[in-house]
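Lecture 7 notes: from sequence to structure.
We start with the chain below.
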Amino acid sequence: MSTKQLTAQSKLIGEHPKSGLFFDWFECEDTPATARKKHRKLTNKGIKSATLVDYLSQWIIKHHASEARMARIERKKQILDKHGFARYMEGKVPFPIKSATTQKGNLGEIILAEYLSETSGLEILVYKLRYNPNVEQSMKGDDLLLFEKQNIQNRVIMGEAKFRETKNKKALDDIVESLSNKNLPISLTFVSDRLEEIGNVALADEIDDLITNLHTKKTPVTYVGFYHSEPSAYMTIEKHLDSDNNNLVIVSYGEDNPTQLVKNSFDKAIKMVMK
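Predicted structure tokens for the same chain:
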């Protein structure tokens, strides 16, 4: 029995899902890899927009608000009438409702986080968007960190997402620069502090040890860039991706009118919180 050869992309981030939302949503192609170019091209298979928006709106809420916070909002909803609840929620919606730019960036991070959790089996330990002091602005620090929870020192995935309505080379160059193998995750102390706050001291200690291991190169980092743009976005990656980081994979997702998907997903999330 012949074993299927894994692509360079699959070795780093895992194989594309064989079932579930990402299987239904994305056609996946790992384009021929070189030492300087590893690209996973995702395109829309034709999933119904309403189905997709249902999933994405739930993810928007999950990544921006803890279950306890959503339960608190729900309790207020039961107590107050519609007008009173709307007034109570002014300035309290846990995700951006005014800044389309922040929405686009946040949704890219969320899609990449959920996709990599599925392909790699690694986990998000802290949903950083829940801690944004100003939801209308993008947060500083790493877009995304995933860990192997059972063995924190084993490996880390560091991700960066970019959205461009019209594809351009500069956004790709920015991803490649921020995911240079000279750049180590800068948000580990933030992760450690949040874990300690919620009482997970053992895991916080593990993250502190990981910081040392990364500096001494004992723990490998996989770098993943997500480029969300128009249908021909993959051409920009294929033509221009050139990185000396052997552990970098660029995942591109091109679709017609990507801006509309972001808007529809956030509009649905707002309705779910406010209804």
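Points to note: The chain has a mean pLDDT of 95. The chain is about 45% helix and 15% strand.
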